[in-house]
Design goal:
This protein has 14 helices and 20 strands. By secondary structure, the chain is α+β, with helices and mostly antiparallel strands. The strands form six sheets. The chain has a six-stranded mixed beta sheet with strand order 1-4-8-5-9-19, sandwiched between helices. A four-stranded antiparallel beta sheet has the order 13-15-11-16.
């Protein structure tokens, strides 16, 4: 490894010296209960937005709190306004590169009764880990950006790049269209003159080696509704004398995927990108332990012969179908001897680059209707496409990625794993399309952080070294 540049040596030392102060900043952020799934809690989300805006203003940023409309819910005869989106500019030097940084300020619901070992909105430090809702998703990484910029300023070192911040408060509420519409509307003013886009809302593949992500799967979500009666029926009175909707639906859902996780819908595989010449080698070099993954999942056996490369490809580069639940069915403990009059099955398909959503929808609809004909049921079937997100991929050999790789070597003294991810982040594609620039995902947290789960955490190591990484990333991008 080459000698660490003097600027970064100073910066890293300062960050180490101020570790306790940075943890206290995160403690303040975690204490704000910014749960966006609860419309009645939008006031707390807005408080988190305004707290962040004040921190950015203190750093010298020009901050705009942008209105994105109102919720359909009425309170006291008025619609509830959605929390503002922060659009902030820090620096407008035409001789510097400009990075757009995205993050979100809202969190998933959490309470001690859910199974947390600590109070979820009180940051708790234990065994080198910082527990609290939002610690890793996504308040920790957002705070890291502000911490490292403050460090540059306290040292009297000029920031090597201009930064545009987009921080929202509705990411966890399935309201993707709100930000997507804003990005499209502001592409010719706020997003003008962008050079690169950086998103820090993802995680390492494992617990030890940092990575950079250059692809995300998309998603299509479906409802499959079967109706057999105008209302629920008593099974003792009507059982055996009606064609039951639940039996029809369970049969239909069971035909979508086989026991080895293969999608059985013809045509789905049509547009999957063929393997690159060296793609197998890229996967083989990734630091990934199949046994550890199996232990984390709690599975007895994994598909694909438990082969590392095949499992990673199944997670990232191939589509996958998952069945999520049945609405209208009884699911609580005990028995309710009822025949549901109408049930709605819910499933999704994760899409990969080149797959066309319109073609996928045609395949799914045709298949289910053909299966319904095969079933021969007199009940009523309705198939609905509920929501979609396109897949995203980027050039991992772009100079932007090379700069990030160098930054990782500065901090961790290792080469990063180059990964895709199985999830869907619509803002990555939106910012790519709106700016026409290279987009990178730089995770700070580890795979075991438990985002969305009980006992969410970020390791102190990841939080502090992640702060350094963002500083080194800006330094290297500033040299491009």
């Amino acid at each position: 490894m080459s000698e660490l540049p003097t600027v970064l040596n100073q910066l890293f030392s300062y960050i180490d010296d101020n570790k306790r102060a940075y943890i206290d900043v995160l403690r303040t952020a975690v204490a704000i209960e910014s749960v966006s799934l609860w419309p009645n809690n939008y006031g707390e989300v807005q408080r988190m937005v305004e707290w962040t805006a004040d921190k950015l203003k203190a750093l010298g940023a020009d901050v705009e709190l942008t209105d994105i409309g109102e919720h359909e819910m009425m309170v006291d005869g008025k619609r509830i306004p959605f929390p503002n989106v922060i659009l902030a500019d820090l620096g407008k030097d035409p001789n510097k590169k400009t990075i757009v940084v995205y993050g979100h300020l809202d969190v998933q619901p959490a309470s001690k009764e859910d199974g947390w070992n600590t109070e979820p909105f009180e940051l708790t430090e234990k065994d080198g880990k910082l527990y609290g809702r939002g610690a890793t998703d996504n308040k920790g990484p957002v705070v890291c950006w502000m911490n490292v910029i403050e460090a540059y300023q306290k040292l009297g070192i000029e920031l090597p790049v201009n930064v545009k911040f987009i921080f929202e408060g509705m990411e966890e509420s399935d309201r993707d269209e709100l930000l997507v519409n804003l990005v499209e509307a502001r592409k010719n003013d706020f997003l003008a003159n962008t050079d690169f886009v950086c998103i820090t809302d993802n995680y390492w593949l494992g617990k030890n080696r940092p990575c950079l992500a250059y692809g995300l799967r998309g998603i299509v979500c479906y409802n499959v509704e079967v109706e057999c009666a105008r209302q629920d029926l008593h099974s003792g009175v009507f059982g055996g004398s009606v064609y039951e909707a639940m039996s029809d639906l369970c049969w239909l859902l069971s035909t979508l995927v086989d026991k080895e996780t293969n999608i059985t819908i013809p045509g789905i595989e049509r547009d999957i990108v063929p393997l690159l010449t060296n793609e197998n080698e890229m996967y083989e070099s990734i630091d990934y332990d199949v046994q550890d993954y199996k232990n984390v999942v709690g599975a007895n056996r994994l598909p694909h012969n438990e082969d590392k490369t095949r499992i990673l490809m199944a997670r990232w580069r191939y589509p996958a179908l998952s069945i999520h639940g049945i609405e209208g069915a009884y699911y609580e403990p005990g028995f309710k001897t009822v025949i549901p009059g109408k049930v709605i099955g819910k499933f999704s398909i994760r899409l990969v680059p080149n797959q066309d959503i319109e073609h996928i929808n045609e395949c799914v609809t045709k298949y289910l209707n053909e299966k319904w004909t095969e079933r021969g049921s007199p009940n009523i079937l309705k198939v609905s496409l509920v929501s979609t997100v396109k897949p995203w991929t980027e050039n991992p050999h772009h100079p932007h990625y090379e700069a990030a790789k160098t930054a990782i070597r500065h901090v961790y003294n290792v080469e990063p794993d180059m990964t895709r991810e199985g999830g869907s982040v619509s803002i990555a594609l939106s910012l790519q399309e709106a700016t026409g620039k290279n987009v990178i995902l730089i995770p700070l947290g580890a795979s075991d952080d438990g985002a969305h789960s009980q006992n969410e955490k970020i390791d102190v190591y990841n939080y502090i070294e992640g702060t350094k990484l963002l500083g080194a990333y800006m330094y290297e991008v500033g040299k491009l």
